[in-house]
Design goal:
The protein is α/β, with parallel strands linked by helices and 263 residues long. Helix content is 36%, strand content 26%. It has 10 helices and 9 strands. The chain has a 7-stranded mixed sheet with strand order 3-2-1-4-5-9-8, sandwiched between helices. The protein starts with 6 loop residues before the first helix and ends with a strand. The structure holds S-adenosylmethionine. Residues 7, 10, 14, 61-63, 65, 68, 83-85, 88, 139-142, 161-163, 166-167 line the site of S-adenosylmethionine.
Length: 263
């Protein structure tokens, strides 16, 4: 793909604030509503199932977002987040340190609390997540050890949302990046991935980022080939067109897979 946006474009042109403003206002009738509602439900089910749990979870390509971690912190004591760009890690740290100017996640946090049966007040949920986060690391999925120069014991869960379809140029590099990430996970541990299908671009403010056009058959083959057994593959077709000009995805997915072997 000639208009592939690689690492330099992410580092120089990906605005965390524009990304958050465009996609994460739950209730604004945008992608936020469709993608978020579907994915949050899938993550609540996954992390409250009692099966996907343990000591440590790492999120790969966290960006400036926390939605993907809100249920994970119920199932994992320690959470490591990671992203390629300095600005995304800075924006994440603004939320983590509860500094002025942090994005207002309260509609999303309240929604997750509701889905979880209102067991705790939403303010407590955000604090619980903050306490669980033990590291914010630089990460590059194209390195054999994506968090190089840091090394950690293999973790119990690998989470990644909307990352590889943005980061990878083609199917070959997707497979390589997935295998690189997978070295961080224990055998028997879980991969939880969410993202979109059929997407070729997405807008962050005025800047166009390329998307790798994924389909179910490819994802199943790539994940199985990286040493996993797929336990569930949920998808939902896009139903509204309010973000037609911001991205061209056709469906969303939530995948849960167990690492069975080293590849
Ligand atoms: C569409 S955003 C997704 C952010 C967040 N996970 C979410 O669900 O909204 C894609 C993320 O992938 C990150 N990324 C791009 N290239 C990467 C690479 N080579 N290694 C790790 N992350 C990368 C970007 O910095 C960005 O945060």
């Amino acid at each position: 793909m000639s208009d592939y946006t690689g690492k330099d474009e992410y580092q120089n042109s990906f605005s965390p604030k524009a990304y958050l403003e465009s996609y994460f206002h739950l209730g604004a009738g945008s992608m936020g509503d469709e993608y978020l509602q579907f994915v949050l439900k899938g993550l609540v089910e996954t992390f409250n199932s009692g099966k996907v749990k343990g000591d440590t979870l790492i999120d790969i390509g966290t960006g400036p977002t926390i939605y993907q971690l809100l249920s994970a912190c119920e199932a994992f004591k320690n959470i490591i987040v990671s992203d390629f760009t300095d600005k995304n890690r800075e924006e994440f740290n603004v939320w983590l340190k509860n500094q002025p100017g942090a994005f207002d996640w309260s509609p999303v946090v309240k929604h997750v609390c509701q889905l979880e049966g209102d067991r705790i007040p939403w303010q407590e949920k955000e604090e619980r997540l903050r306490k669980a986060i033990i590291q914010v690391l630089k990460c590059d999925v194209f390195n054999t050890n994506p968090i190089d120069p840091v090394t950690i014991p293999q973790v119990d869960c690998l989470l990644s949302c909307l990352c590889l379809e943005g980061a990878c140029k083609d199917f070959e590099s997707y497979i390589t990046a997935l295998k690189n990430m997978t070295t961080l996970l224990k055998i028997g541990g879980y991969l939880v991935m969410t993202g979109d299908l059929g997407n070729t671009y997405y807008m962050v403010g005025d800047v166009k980022f390329s998307g790798l056009n994924l389909n179910e058959a490819f994802l199943r083959e790539a994940i199985t080939g990286a040493g996993y057994v797929i336990e569930s593959f949920q998808q939902s077709k896009k139903t509204e067109d309010s973000v037609e000009d911001k991205a061209d995805f056709t469906a969303y997915y939530v995948i849960v897979a167990r690492k069975e072997r080293n590849v």
